[in-house]
Design brief:
Length: about 800
């Protein structure tokens, strides 16, 4: 037998084994005593032996190793290896009963139990022809396994077109695992006359493809594409089918256009059996200086309303870098939302997520800031979707508004540092059109307001106390018209003085055998504003503040700039907290507060003075005793009537991943009373215990989950919103069935039944129940998580 230039990989390893052992010994410090006296210490060097890929020029020079029971060949000629034959070259391994390798052309023929592994993709079959340089060849009757998305398949023949592309003839493709030692009958598969796998574009293409589930064809297409990763690609997206009580049977077949790395367009044509055709689209863009998205839909001749229906929404943000010699950029924000008619919110509750309410914002603003200065100009308007049975008064439009602020922090005044002060000016044109209660005639109100607000404050503090006085001067000028159209003007200047102060006590404590750090934090807040009769002034943006622990420690009970309440009051409160002494995490917080008026408050939104000198009592408690349990209680109590004006109590139980139960009770005296329950729970946990989580795969295959949210009105004795269903994780596919009932008003609701099949690593078919669950169920966890791309060494031969 003539010597071959190709050698077994054991030969160089054996020759260098003493040197390797010596290097390891040096790296671990096991060296002779005299070696420790060398001037330069010996260090372990980084190695490139486990690189995922080599540079093209390095790959061309990579050696080829062969091994087997018998090797015959000539230098620069053909080599034949028989008996456990193996050829290995960097990222490619070929094993067979018999191998023929031509060194001059790099052509390889393998027969008998052939296995090829390249970059973790494995192929097995009876016969292979392959060029290991160009990676072109054919494989007869192969079975294959793709590493990137754990796909499996088989075929009559497989073509290796080039290093990252292959073609399957008369093949099957699925991500369901192949059991060892038995025939492969996956739950779902794609059967096609040809399947192209492109690992460069990370997309698969099936020609004459049929998608089968449990042996039943559910989707057929002459040309079908599917992703091999989460990389964006153009093509038809999975269709969505649902049954809607408002629109009937809905079928949406989206088409995605990957126009550029920073531009894309998605078309959403929808057929509704009760309404007709809805043409929707979404365009997204991303540039270094600006980003945004434009969404819209058009329904020609809605069969239920006998008119054309449309909607659009635009969100845009942009930075103009230093125009007109300015050192800082201008910041532009655009938020536009419009629909064709007042009934759109009721008929298309899910067409555009930003159009789910009856009050649609339309804002354009331009801002600039540099050092202590900030300047802004904008226009803000609203589209109010009115219902004849429940009309409401929308806010005023601001067309336009101009503001400027000068703010300094930690400034020195009179040789004393730490002062914060600011001056803010604003000019606004207000306008609002309101329908009369008994007809469709609109009444328009307009007015101008200019204001100037100055504020100065300083905080004195130490580890155990703080005190912070604040002085504010509020000047306002109005120009408006009377009911009869006569021009009027008015002005107002009001000072406000307040002082916030508190003490902080801390001690080590022990409760229920557990150590804590406990605090006691009493707080006192004083505010004083003189009375000024404002009953004749217009009210453009003032409204009552929500009554909570935060607003109790503010200067005024009313927000906005048109009503400055004559609040002369003291707010007293105390908070106690328990901290974990090791982690520092807050475990328990209990707070109580109440405001006491020193004089009657005569300036209010309703015009009726407040004569009760004691406000309602607020109690707030939050307990996170362990990562599993968390509870919260908020109570607004009126001592004079001995009644709970408003209360809410909630609890959340999370004993582990994919297990969460949230319960809440909310009550507002003589107004509403509701229970809110949300959950996601594996059914196996109800029958004795759920398995441990599997990385990226929830709790593993074969698991049923119950998931949903129920909002029940005790006052109306009926559920308001219901989203409930089941999920089944089969490992390579997930099934969901969800019932959705969302209340539109007091007498009507929209109901849908959502069915969805998700084939892992391939596509989703059915209605978008996953979106409904993530939007409504608190702490909902998707049963699949993105994990890092797998390494080729995970499937190493």
């Amino acid at each position: 037998m003539k010597p071959s230039p190709l050698r077994s990989p054991l030969s160089p390893l054996a020759r260098h084994l003493p040197g390797i052992l010596s290097a390891l010994a040096v790296g671990t410090g096991a060296v002779p005593a005299m070696a420790q006296n060398t001037a330069s210490p010996v260090r372990l060097q980084s190695s490139s032996l486990l690189q995922e890929s080599l540079k093209p020029e390095a790959l061309e020079r990579a050696p080829v190793f062969v091994s087997g029971e018998q090797i015959e060949g000539q230098t620069d000629g053909a080599t034949v290896i028989e008996g456990q034959a193996e050829l290995r070259r960097h990222d490619t391994v070929i094993r067979a009963d018999r191998l023929e390798f031509d060194r001059s052309s790099s052509d390889t023929r393998a027969t008998g139990n052939v296995l090829i592994n390249r970059n973790g993709d494995r192929f097995e079959g009876p016969a292979l022809q392959l060029n290991v340089d160009s990676y072109q060849g054919t494989f007869e009757e192969p079975r294959f396994q793709l590493l990137r998305n754990e796909a499996q398949g088989d075929a009559r023949q497989l073509e290796f077109l080039e290093k990252d592309k292959l073609r399957v003839h008369d093949g099957r493709y699925s991500t369901c695992p192949r059991p060892p030692g038995s025939s492969w009958d996956p739950d779902w598969l794609v059967r096609a006359s040809r399947i192209d796998i492109d690992n460069v574009e990370e997309v698969g293409t099936a020609v004459g493809g049929v998608v089968e589930f449990k042996g039943v064809p559910i989707l057929a297409a002459p040309y079908l594409t599917f992703p091999l990763s989460d990389k964006r690609k153009s093509g038809v997206l999975p269709p969505s089918i649902s049954v809607d009580s408002q629109s009937g049977l809905e079928l949406t077949v989206p088409y995605y256009l990957n126009l550029a790395p920073n531009f894309d367009l998605t078309l959403y044509p929808t057929v509704m059996t009760k309404r007709g055709v809805d043409l929707g689209a979404e365009f997204r863009y991303l540039q270094p200086g600006y980003t945004g998205q434009l969404r819209g839909s058009y329904t020609p001749d809605d069969q239920l309303r006998d008119r054309d229906r449309w909607s659009y929404s635009l969100q845009h943000r942009q930075l103009f870098n230093g125009p007109l010699g300015l050192r800082s950029p201008l910041n532009l924000r655009v938020n536009l939302n419009r629909v064709s008619d007042n009934n759109y919110w009721r008929d298309y509750p899910r067409t555009l997520t930003s159009l789910s309410s009856r009050l649609l914002a339309n804002d354009v603003s331009l801002g600039w800031s540099q050092g202590p200065w900030s300047v802004g100009v904008g226009a803000h308007s609203w589209q109010a979707l009115q219902d004849p049975d429940s009309r409401f008064t929308p806010p005023f439009d601001r067309l336009p508004t101009i503001n400027a602020t000068y703010r300094r922090s930690n400034d020195s005044i009179g040789g004393l540092s730490g002062w914060d002060w600011s001056i803010r000016g604003e000019m606004t044109r207000f306008e609002r059109s309101v329908l009369a209660a008994d007809d469709d005639e609109e009444t328009t109100t307009r007015g101008d307001r200019s204001l100037l607000v100055g504020e100065i404050t300083r905080r004195w503090q130490s580890p155990g106390w703080f005190i912070q006085p604040k002085f504010r001067l509020h000047a306002t000028q109005y120009n408006y018209s009377s009911v009869r159209g006569r021009p009027l003007s008015a002005s107002r200047v009001l000072p406000t003085f307040s002082t916030d102060s508190g003490l902080i006590f801390e001690r080590e404590a022990s409760f229920f055998g557990r150590a804590f750090v406990q605090t006691l934090e009493p707080r006192a807040f004083f505010t004083w504003t003189p009375f000024d009769d404002q009953i004749r002034l217009p009210n453009y943006d003032s409204s009552n503040r929500d009554f909570n622990l935060s607003t109790l420690f503010t200067e005024h009970t009313v927000g906005g700039n048109d009503r400055i309440t004559d609040t002369k009051a003291v707010t007293l409160g105390v908070t106690s907290r328990l901290f974990d002494p090791v982690s520092g995490g807050e475990l328990v917080r209990v707070g109580v507060a109440q405001r006491f008026l020193l004089e009657d408050q005569r300036v209010t939104i309703s015009g009726r003075p407040v004569t009760d000198r004691s406000s309602d009592l607020l109690l707030s408690t939050r307990v996170n005793w362990s990562p599993t349990w968390s509870t919260e209680l908020n109570l607004r109590y009126r001592p004079s009537d001995d009644v709970a004006v408003r209360s809410s109590i909630s609890a959340r139980y999370m004993p582990g991943p994919y297990r969460v139960l949230s319960v809440a009770y909310r009550q507002q005296n003589s107004v509403s009373e509701q229970f809110d329950i949300g959950w996601q729970w594996p059914l196996s946990a109800l029958l004795g215990g759920a398995p441990d989580p599997v990385k990226g795969r929830a709790l593993g295959p074969g698991q049923w989950y119950s998931v949903g949210r129920l909002n029940y009105s005790v006052t109306d004795k009926k559920p308001i919103d219901v989203v409930a269903g089941f999920e089944y994780d089969a490992g390579c596919w997930i099934g969901r069935v969800v019932l959705e009932r969302l209340q539109l008003n007091r007498v009507s609701a929209n109901e849908r039944v959502l069915l969805q099949l998700e084939f892992n690593g391939f596509s989703r078919l059915g209605a978008s129940s996953l979106k409904s669950l993530s939007n409504h169920v608190p702490r909902y966890q998707y049963l699949r998580e993105e994990i890092n791309p797998p390494s080729r060494f995970e499937n190493y031969d």
